[in-house]
Specification:
Distance between the termini: 13 Å
CATH class: Mainly Beta
Strand content: over 45%
Number of domains: 1
Largest sheet: 6 strands, antiparallel
Order of helices and strands: HEEEEEEEEEEEH
Shape: elongated
Length: about 180
Amino acid sequence: MKRYTLQIVISLILVCLPGAAMASLVGPSPDSYNGSSNTGYGNFVNGDTAVNIGTNFIYATDNTPGSPFAVGTLNWTGTDLVTLSFDYILSGAAGSNNNIQYGFGWSGAGPTLITTYGSGHVSSTFDLSQLTGDTLFVEAYADGLNSNASISNINVTSTPVPAAAYLFGSGLLGLVGLSRKKEK
């Protein structure tokens, strides 16, 4: 009886450990560019361009057609299944080149691009274990007269493995243990 109890305890530990070991989410880490090599959190101004970046917002503005332009990016890495959500506003004069990008970098299908002016909300789920030297990112890009690309309420949360999955796994292990007992 002690042997089976020990097997069950070890099996439960093995079923629960992978979920605990996979809990890893690093970020956000900021990256910004507005005609210079500014990086980090803060408000960066270069002539008519500005990027203001924090842990849950990015505001990029430009009031000059052509170069320079304003870009702010937040990046995450890890191995979790995560949900990325944010609100955005895009506006600018005719001919402006403003957009919001989010997703994995340029591996696979590449990021999702929003170019329609107006406001909206995004909520998407990403499996960070699929990253191969890439990052999950959200980026605001403003280029042109009266250009604004704003992202606010940025939230990246780990999506936990449901408790039912652990119960199912431990139930399967229990059935395997019972079938072994019957064989003897």
